[in-house]
Each structure stands twice: as structure tokens, then as C-alpha cells.
């Protein structure tokens, strides 16, 4: 394989992992209450803003000593995940729970409204301009500098960082849903909320837990976003959110491993489109993929069903 | 009248006298065999009932006649038109709206009216399939469209007269009392000008008086309008009272067929309904 | 504004018009000649309502004149008022046309379309392509029935033809998008339309330097759509020497009023026809509609296409009026704004859509900027710099988002619920008649649910086998039978 191709693969893969984190939030919620949670992308956007302001407030720079930097990043990661989980639960309380027995379009419209609310809160908070953040994690090629390989391919510390944060979270979540008591309650609720309720599962709490997990993952994705792509803006949620939603649909919405696979595929689609076609067409291609899947294979690559194959 | 009418047994009549002829109809849902190789005939002008325990495949069979389900195997012919049958290697069926246009009207087990449309509009939707005007006629309100609308309304009102709902034509369908909703469903089905009327548990939830008046009404439909009626019904008094023929399904198979009296005495039927012990006793 | 479905008289009664164009003319003139009598009748029977409506209509008709010649000056020189100017009025009306069209799709047929802006863009670009110097650069110079000088390069058709072409183009794309997607479930359809609404502006934005070769067709660095800059100038509508452009004062306001009136008439006529009933039947219960003989796929496609044509109309008007169009104008937020107009007004209600559109554009373009200005004035005067720089109007979509969530929670039937229908359905108890439209009601059983219910019933029967006494409810009736 030629170097450019491999390079595009690596770029696509690392972006795809971030998509996967956000896509899991969509797929978890859809799996449980069949709602396209429009506001999820904007939760991710807000989390990147929160991460940015925390980093700036604490004073993380590229000069910060390695040990300190790692500590700060871990603390910020935990804080942002916790805050976003709380926010996501509150959103469910305010905008979706009262509509649980309404027809499906009512919560969907409510979610769109919530998306606009969050997006404009982001606008109020940081203004219309793109907010940059300095490159804390060095963009240095690990292969050449550390391993001393003679290659044109580059895997940077930043890309490794994305993998180190996202992969354990992805594995942890799938394990949680597959093996824990609460995970089983989630799967039961996804199958049939009424029966699950009759079997003694607290459906409201299980749904809240789903939003908690989705919010926490979006929070982690926001931290990774600000450290990896070094930028955030209030419209990030809409663009990124639709990419992530497409990932979820691509993998088979409601299917956890499908969301991860979909995220990676979509990251690759983005990277290849950027490189070999033109960045300005990338969004159109993503939407084209989304429409094509929904029309021709609405169950996605791995089929529907929450966590059954996770 | 009913007593004098005895439909000939399956296979003994020339095809011309059969409105519906079903042969080897089978429907499989995954591993579950809902209807298995059913042969079923409906002679013109008869009232035929389909009975059987819950889940015996009655409604599934109904849904295959209306084109809602495609049979896994077998063929159904209505008035000389194939509704379902093998074409090449696959069984295909007409889409429901085409079946309706051929002359099959139906009601639903759990009432499915258009709730926030007026009673009159509900019947007019039934007439839809026989109206010809296009959207551009509607936009321009052409004379032909006005004429058609006018006539359709008169026709719909006549149907409402027939079921006794004329006074309530402006009411929203969902605001009608339960019994009236059942009657409106029949009026709507009659709007499609059917030759065959399929009634899915029409007396469910009705009291004795209502049931009796509905039974009379079904008889009148046959005698005055020449309709053929296929009935799914749980109330055996209704079934035994008005049917010319009764077919009993169990496990998706026909276990008995004949006049109400034949079926009443059939030991397999008793067994299917009451369990083995009852039949032996 | 007579309430209700056509009466026998309205339909021509026993004297139905003869067929053909002559009969149509006769019918139209008869309807027109009945108006004075009908109005006197309404005045006699429902006096207050009729007077109020007359005043509202009259006020709408004279407002542009009064504003132009009195109010605008007063507001500028004496006391500031949140008054819509000519441009805002035109946009209120353009969005009214769109809301009326989307109401056919969402309100009548119950199909959630989140990419309606695509058809608006298609209408606008159709007008831009057919009435501007744009194609002159590629060597096309076509002038048909136009007042534009033949010295001006490019394709120039009169607006009065262009709007119809724009409507047809939008409807065609509506049908093309709808054909493969209308079988999808409600929320998937919403997402597909959303994607389409995003793709169309991207395509218009990016087709700038197109290199293409196919047989005799050869394009080299061709600028097909004007790219990010869009296309301008676009010929304004012109009739008997009167121009209806952005600089033409109140003339375009009245043109837009005529177009909206046309849209209302078309929507009303469709609502009360065979097609309108079929749409509502699909909205209420798609499966029952199919069983009653409605070809649901074709009928939904028609709703999609006709709804799109209204946006094509509106787009052509916008482009011709402003004399320019750019892809940035057509955002997802615009699609949602139109959805919000229908929700606020009350789904399925033509007057609700109309009022919702006028009100929201007014709030967005006149009221919020006015409040913003006043807040900034206060900030200036008390010397609070943050307040003086604060732009309330930029929060419009924060406010609209809150309204969306609140409407869903508190009043899904809209602020102007179908009173028209309540009046029409005078037998119904008012509380019931004011209920939400079906789209926002607990859903009817879908096809899949129907199948799975059958499956369960069948599976349940299997289980019942082992226990002769198994099953409940209707089983009792089973047993009273052949005993």
C-alpha cells in the first residue's frame, strides 16, 4: 500500500473513534426509546466548550510538565463526563420524559427544539467565532522519532491519545451493557418497556441511566475533540452530530458494536473524501451515505437491536 | 329465507357461481404456520362464517383475501381475478387498494375509523376508489369535479341513512358511541361498492339488542343489495343464526365445513373449542 | 371565509354547472355573484365575528399603504415602533406560502419533512437560472417575452412564467425524493428529508469550477451555480411597466399577497377534495386508508410534490424580489422555522399555518430586532457596555427552540387549534373538537405492529393448547358456541 493511502486510513481511524463515542449516545437512546436524540450532537459541542474553558482556566499548555498534564487531562475528563451526564439526564427530564406516551414525532420535534436551545447556549457562551486551543499533545510522529523507523507514514502522539481514551471507553460500555444488572435492565427495556416495567425494572431510572451513559461518552468525546482537533464552535454539534448519527445508522441503529464500526467507517469515508475528492463535498457525501442506507438497508451493516451482539 | 338457502358444498358448484375460490392457501410467519393449505370457497350471494379458537388463523386468512398479506403458497381468485397466486417462482398478491377496487370491502376487528375526520368524510374515503377526479380538477374545481363531489356526497349520505347515522354526518368519527362506530365502519366499507363484504367480529362488545339489529342488517345487505358476506365471529348465536355455511379453522387448518347444523355436531369442532375431555364426555 | 365543507348550494346544488370550460366560467361567476348575499347573511347571523374578520382583512390590505405613507415616518421621526417594513412584509408572505405548502405535507398527510428548505432553494435557483445574465458567460442568450433589453446577455424569461417552472421543478424533485423514501417509517423519513435539505444547498454552493466531458458536451471550469457568491442580478417581476423588486416599495407586497391568496385557495380546494380526504385518511390510519382503496404510495407522493411546489413558488418569488440568491440562505434552521410555524398555528389548519408564518417572521425580523435595539439603547444610556453590545435578535433560535419544546409539552395542538373545524363539527363537544391533530396523537397501529400482533396471537394460541382453560376474554364467547 502506498503511504498516502495508509495515512488517510490512520486519519480516518482516529476521527472515526471520536464519531463512535458520539454515535454510541445516539444508538443507546434510540435503542431504548426509539428517539433520534437530535440534541446529542449539541451536548457534545457543549462538552468540548466546557473542556476548553477548564483547560484554559487550569492553565494547561504545551509547556506543562508531562505528569501534570496527564493528571489535568484525567481530572478534566472526569469532570466533563460527570457534568455532561447530568445535563443529558436533565434534558431527558425536561424535554422527553413528559412526552413518553405521545406519538413518536412529538419527542423528535422536542429534541430538535432542544438542539436549537443548546446550540444557541453555545453561541451565547463562546460567540460565533471558532475557538482554537493550542496543541498540548505533540503532533510528533511516534514511528520515526521514538521507534526510529524509516517511513513516510505518521502516527502521532495525538492519534495514540485518541485511541488510549476512546478504546477503553468503548470496551467498558459494551461490557457494562452486556454483563451488569443495569445493562440487562437496559436491554430488557429496549425490548419492551411495558413488560420490563411489569418485571420490576424501574423504566424511568433505566432510561435516565441511558442518557447518563450517552452524556458521559459525549463528554469524553468533547475532551478528545478539543485536544485532538484543537477547535470548537457552536455549530460543531450539528455537523458532527449528523456524522455521528449517520455512523449509528450505518452500523444498525440500536446496535452498540455497529455504532463503533459505523463511526470508524464514516471516519474513513470523511478522510478519503477530504483527500481524494474535495473537502467541500464531504458533507454532501455523508448525507448521501445516510440517505442510501436508510432507503436501501435501514437495518444498517450489523442489523438493529440494542446490545444483542455487543 | 335463511332456512331455504343452502349453499352447495365445495367443489360441487361451477366456478362461475363462486365469488371467492381459494386453493392451498398457506401463510408462514418465520417458523410459525398460521394458515396451512386451506381450500375455501364463497358462493355468490351467501353468508359464510369463519370460526375457530383465538389464533386459529382466521384474521390472517382475512388479510390474505384483502391483499394485506401475501400467502406463502396457494392461490386466491376473486370474481375471476387472481388476487394472489404463483407468478414464476414467487407467490404475489395484488396491493390492498387494488383488491378493494375489485370489490372487496372490509371492517376491522378493533375499529379503525379516521378519528378526526367527520362521519361523512369517513364514508367519502370509502368512495375514494370509485371517484375519478384528479388533483388539478380539485384545484380548479372543474364542473366534472363539482358534479362528482356532489354525487359522492349524495351517495355517502344515502349510506349513512342506511346505517342510521345521517343525523351525525358532521361529527368527528371518534366522538361517536361505540356501536355507532361499528356501523360507520360498515357504511365506510359499503362505500367501496363491494361485492364481498368482510366483517371481522362485527358484534364484539355489543349488547343483545345491538347484536340482533346488526344481524338483521347483515341479512338485509344480502337480500337488498345482493352482497356476499364473509364473517369472522365469536358469538355463536350470530354465526348459527345467519350463516349459510360455516368453516372452522384450528391450527391454521380447516377442521370442519358445512351448514351450521353440521358444524354444531362435529366432534372435532367441539374438541377444538372445549378440549379433548369435553368431546369424550 | 365560510366555515365548513361545501354546502349543496356551494357545490352548485341541483343546478350543477355544465361540463367544459364554459361551465367552469359559469360556476366561477356564480360563486362570485353569491358573495354579497353570503356576506350579508354572515353579517346577519354571526355579526361580531364577521365584522372582526372584515376589519382584519381590511387592515392587512391597507397596512402596507399606511405604513409607507404615515407609520414608517412616524416610527422613524417621532416614536420608534416594531413595525414590519416592506421587505419584512414580503418575507412574512413568502414564508406564509411555504407554511401553507408544508402544511399539506405535515398537516394534511402527516409526513414529517425536515428538509423543506431544499425546495425553496430549488425554486430560487430556477428563477435565477431563467431570469438573469448568469448563463451569458457560457454563451447562452435567450430572451422570451421579457422586458429585459436584448443587449443584456443570459437567459431572460418573465417572472410570470418562471414561477410556474419553479413550482414544477420543485415538485419534480419532491417526487424524485419521495418515490424511494415514502415507504420509510416516520422518523427515518424525517432524517432522509433533512439530508436532502442539506445536500441541495451544498450542490448549489459547489458547482463552480466544473470540468466535465461527455460526448459533445464539454465544460471547462464552468461556473454553473455561482458558487458561494450565488447568482445576481436576477430580473425583478415586471407587469405593465411596474416593477416588483426589492427597491419597488409596496408593489411587491401586494404581489406577494396575491400569491399567498392563490396558495390559500389551492390548499383549501385540495383539502376539500378526494385527495385531501385521502391525505387525512393516511394521516389518521395509513393501513385502514390502504384497505379502503387509497393508493397510499401515490397519494403520499402527491402530497410531497404539491407541498414542494409551494416552496418552489416561494423560492422564485424570493429570488426575483431580492434580485439575488445564495446557497447560504437555505439552512436547516429555515426548514425548522417553517415546521415551527405549522406547529404554533396548529397542524392541518390552513389559517393556523398562515397566522403562524406571519407571526413568526414578524417576531424574527421585526419584533426581536426592535427589542434588541431598545435594550441596547438602555445599555447606552446607563453606560452598561455589555448590555449596549448585546444582540437579543441573535438569540432568535434559542427562543424558537424553547417554543418548540414548550409547545410539544403544553399545547401540541397549536395555539390556533382547528376552531374552523370545531365550528364545522358543531355536533361535537367543543373540548373534543379542539383536540390535537392526529399527527400528535397516540399513534395508530402500524403495519409492523399489526403483523407482530398476529404473530403473538398465533404464538399465544400455541401456548393455549396445553391448557384447555387457557386464554381469557373473548374465549368465553368461543365456548358458548357448539355445545
Write the layout of secondary structure elements.
The complex is a heterotrimer of chains A (310), B (281) and C (483).
Chain A: H1 3-33, H2 40-58, H3 66-96, H4 105-126, E1 131-132, H5 142-145, H6 157-179, H7 181-191, H8 193-198, H9 203-228, E2 231-232, H10 236-251, H11 256-277, H12 279-296
Antiparallel strand pairs in A: 1-2
Chain B: E1 18-29, E2 32-43, E3 47-51, H1 58-65, E4 73-78, E5 81-87, E6 90-93, H2 96-102, E7 104-106, H3 119-127, H4 135-140, H5 143-163, H6 178-191, E8 196-200, H7 208-225, E9 228-232, H8 236-242, E10 245-250, E11 253-258, H9 260-265, H10 267-274, H11 276-280
Parallel strand pairs in B: 3-9, 3-10, 7-8, 8-9
Antiparallel strand pairs in B: 1-2, 1-4, 4-5, 5-6, 10-11
Helix pairs in contact in B: 3-5, 3-6, 5-6
Chain C: H1 20-45, H2 47-77, H3 86-108, H4 117-130, E1 131-132, E2 141-143, E3 154-156, H5 159-181, H6 186-206, E4 210-214, E5 217-222, E6 238-239, E7 242-243, H7 251-271, H8 274-284, H9 286-291, H10 296-322, H11 332-345, H12 350-382, H13 385-389, H14 396-410, H15 419-424, H16 430-433, H17 447-464, H18 475-479
Parallel strand pairs in C: 2-3
Antiparallel strand pairs in C: 1-3, 4-5, 6-7
Helix pairs in contact in C: 1-2, 3-7, 3-10, 3-11, 3-12, 4-5, 4-6, 4-10, 5-10, 7-10, 8-10, 11-12, 11-14
Distance between the termini of chain B: 35 Å
Question: What average pLDDT do the residues of chain B reach?
Answer: 85
- Which bin fits the share of residues in helices of chain B? 25-40%
Tell me the Rg of chain B in angstroms.
Answer: 20 Å
Largest sheet of chain B: 6 strands, mixed
Integer-rounded radius of gyration of chain A: 19 Å
Q: DSSP strand (E) fraction of chain B? A: 25-35%
Trace the largest sheet of chain A across and list its strands.
Answer: 1-2
What is the molecular shape of chain A? Answer: globular
Q: Find the count of extended strands of chain A (DSSP E, 2+ residues).
A: 2
Q: Give the oligomer, counting copies of the same chain as homo and different chains as hetero.
A: heterotrimer
